[in-house]
Amino acid sequence: MRESWKTIEAEPIRPAEARRPAEAGDDADLEFLAGMLDDRFRVPGTNIRFGLDALIGLIPGVGDAVSGVLSSYLIWRAHQLGASKLTLLRMAGNVAIDSAIGVVPIFGDLFDWRFRSNRRNLELLRRQRLTSPGSGIRRAAFRR
Q1: Residue-range domain boundaries for the chain
Q2: CA gap 48, 125 in Å, rounded
Q3: What would the 3-class secondary structure string for the chain be?
Q4: Rounded distance, CA 6 to CA 17, Å?
Q5: CA 8 to CA 91: how far, in whole Å?
Q6: Residue (of 77, 71, 78) closest to 37 by Cα position
Q7: Most Cβ neighbours (<10 Å): which of 15, 36, 105, 132?
Q8: What end-to-end distance do the CA atoms of the chain give, in Å?
Q9: Nearest C-alpha neighbor of 82 from the set 40, 142, 32
């Protein structure tokens, strides 16, 4: 049984493919990140959902900064997909509000739990695609 793993040869990764941005229909990373940060976990016996954003925000000092860095990945991907400058600015505003208010003890943690900036940002991208099909966002992205 142990010998079988030696016979499998891995296919090499070509440098051009490794650096290539995700394809237009590949929005699974955005959905996954927004879900993990905003509503991955559920309090048993309730419909209350929370994500890593709320948990990381509990760490004094650096929690909200780390959460803001993770949230900025959505903005970077939106830029790659051709989102308008206004949409990118609104997304950055959501992350800034979440990070700024999140540093306030207790209130900021409750705010993180309810504001869900990553879900808001994903919805902004989807709304832009629906309202302005010629906006530059690739049509196959952000399907539901």
Answers
A1: 26-131
A2: 25
A3: CHHHHHHCCCCCCCHHHHHCCCCCCCCHHHHHHHHHHHCCEECCCCCCEECHHHHHCCCCCCHHHHHHHHHHHHHHHHHHCCCCHHHHHHHHHHHHHHHHHHCCCCHHHHHHHHHCHHHHHHHHHHHHHHHCCCCCCCCCCCCC
A4: 26
A5: 44
A6: 71
A7: 36
A8: 42
A9: 142
* Nearest alpha carbon to residue 51 among 126, 112, 108, 104: 112
The predicted model gives 87-110 an average pLDDT of 91
pLDDT of residue 121: 94
Q: In this structure, what are the phi and psi dihedrals at residue 120, rounded to the nearest 5 degrees?
A: -60, -45
pLDDT average, residue stretch 36-60: 89
Both structure tokens of 42: 């559920």
> What pLDDT was estimated at residue 19?
38
Token code pair at residue 136: 């530059």
pLDDT at 73: 92
What's the confidence (pLDDT) of residue 129? 79
Tell me the C-alpha distance between 42 and 36, whole Å: 12
Better pLDDT: 81 or 133 = 81
